[in-house]
Every structure is written in C-alpha cells, then in structure tokens.
Amino acid sequence: MAHYETSVTTNHSPAEAFAMMADMTRFAEWDPGVQSATQTTGTEPGMGAAYRLVVNGVGPAPATPLTYVMEEFEAGTRYRAVAKAKFFSSDDIVTVIPNGDGSIVKYEADLLLNGPFKLFDPLLGPIFNKIGDAAAAGLQKFLA
Fold first, then answer.
1. pLDDT for res 88
2. Global pTM value
3. Which residue from 79, 88, 91, 130 puts its CA 20 to 30 A from 69's CA?
4. Is the per-residue pLDDT at 13 higher than 90?
C-alpha cells in the first residue's frame, strides 16, 4: 500500500475549508492528476454521495474513471471517500482542524493494488509520492 499525507494551513474558516474540500467536484481545480469530477449520487456532499473522477493514467496507462463514495462523513470536520477499481483501491481522508481564525486541512490518501498486483505495492510508493506532491502544491494554491 502506498500512503501520502499533507497538511495545508489556510485563512479559510473551518466551515469554508471543509465545504471546499467536501465538494469533490472541485478536485479537478487543485489536483493535476484529476481531469474531471462530477457528482453522480446525491446533490451535495454527505454520507453516500458519489463522485466520478477521471484520473490521469501513470506512464502509458490511459485515464481511468473512478467512483468515490463517501463512506464516513462528519459535517464540517472529516470525511472518508473510497474508490474501488479493477486493479486498485483508493482511500482518501480529509480532516479540517480549527487554527485561530483559519484552519488546517489534512489530506491523506492510500492506494492499494488488488489481487496479484499487490506484489508491486513496494514499487508504488515513489510514483504515488510524486503524484501526491503535485496535488499538494495545487491544494496549497486552492486553499490560499
């Protein structure tokens, strides 16, 4: 399993920062690895809401559509969205922590290869870190 974690300090209030992050349709605004994002179930963020994100492929791999489902949702504080594809699963957690007049947004992502592809998990870390660093830079600008 590959793990990536970053935290961004922002002047946005916790409520504003959470609203910006919980609306996964906005991921394409800050994550260069996301080509597009649409909500497919529900009309706003919350338990059971689902989002279709088209993510860039790695190397020669084509772009991949993923459906993320909100499996945990604590309004204003934290959510967990999970996507399960044929070859891998992605588990993302966003936590917003009050910080003075602003907040700290903590973003965690785990990528786990499925089935026999699990053998390649140790090789996934450096690639996932590079993708994560690009997303973290975009997140810093998005929350500025």
1. 85
2. 0.90
3. 130
4. yes
Which residues are 10's β-sheet partners? 103
Strand, coil or helix: 26: helix
Question: Which pLDDT tens digit goes with each residue over 59-76?
Answer: 666 788 999 999 999 999
Round to whole Å and give the CA distance between 81 and 48: 9
Query: Is the confidence at residue 117, as pLDDT, over 80?
Result: no
Outline where DSSP puts E strands in the chain: 2-10, 34-41, 50-55, 64-74, 78-84, 88-99, 102-113
- Give the CB-side neighbour count of residue 87, counting CA atoms within 13 A: 10
Angle CA 94–98–104, to nearest 5? 50
Exposed (0-12), middle (13-18) or buried (19+): which is 79, by Cβ within 10 Å? Answer: buried
Annotated domain spans of the chain: 2-142
- The yes/no answer on whether domain 2-142 falls in CATH 3.40.50.300 is no
